[in-house]
Amino acid sequence: MKRHIPILVCGILPLVGLYKLSANIDWQFILGYWLFISVTTFVSYWQDKRRAQKGLWRIPEKSLHSFELLGGWPAAYLAQQLFRHKTSKRSFRIAFWCIVGFYQFLALEWITDWRVSRWLISLV
């Protein structure tokens, strides 16, 4: 359980951001989209693992990362842990955690009304 704490903590800011977003967009749409991308991501990891075990054509890593980037990163983490898939390839893990970090930044910016981005733009 202790090793899963970082990913649980990484879910806090995006959840707060989604709560704030629900003031502008119907929460049912947000939930529906999140469920769709999560199931798609999870199934893609499952299929890729099965294909790897059978020596068949694999789902490209950029497709898996695209699903993560579209919001399926929590489902990707769950699939990685359940299927023991893509957990040892360092370059894949780095890209995954960069996507998680991007979501942290994006959520923080949304919550703080783009304060950091405006500050960075003012420096230029």
Q: Any descriptors?
A:
6 helices; 79% helix; 124 residues; single chain; mainly alpha
Report on this model:
This protein is mostly helical and 124 residues long. The protein has one domain. The protein has 6 helices and no strands. Helix 2 packs across helix 5 (90-111), helix 3 crosses helix 4 and helix 4 (61-83) packs across helix 5. The chain is globular, with a radius of gyration of 16 Å. The model has no long low-confidence stretch (mean pLDDT 92). InterPro entries: DUF1294. The chain crosses the membrane at residues 5-21, 27-46, 94-112. This is DUF1294 domain-containing protein. It comes from Coraliomargarita algicola. Keywords: Membrane, Transmembrane, Transmembrane helix.
The number of strands is 0
Give the percentage of residues in beta strands.
under 5%
> What form results from the Cα inertia axes?
globular
**Poorly predicted ranges (pLDDT <50, ≥5 residues)?**
none
- Which value, in Å, is the CA radius of gyration? 16 Å
Q: How helix-rich are the residues, as a percent range?
A: over 70%
Question: Please, how many helices?
Answer: 6
How many domains would you count in the coordinates?
Answer: 1
Distance between the termini: 44 Å
Average residue-wise pLDDT? 92
Q: Which secondary-structure class do the elements indicate?
A: mainly alpha
**How would you classify the quaternary structure?**
single chain
Secondary-structure element order, N to C: HHHHHH
> Main β-sheet: number of strands, strand sense, barrel status?
none
Pfam families: DUF1294 (PF06961)
Keywords: Membrane, Transmembrane, Transmembrane helix
Protein name: DUF1294 domain-containing protein
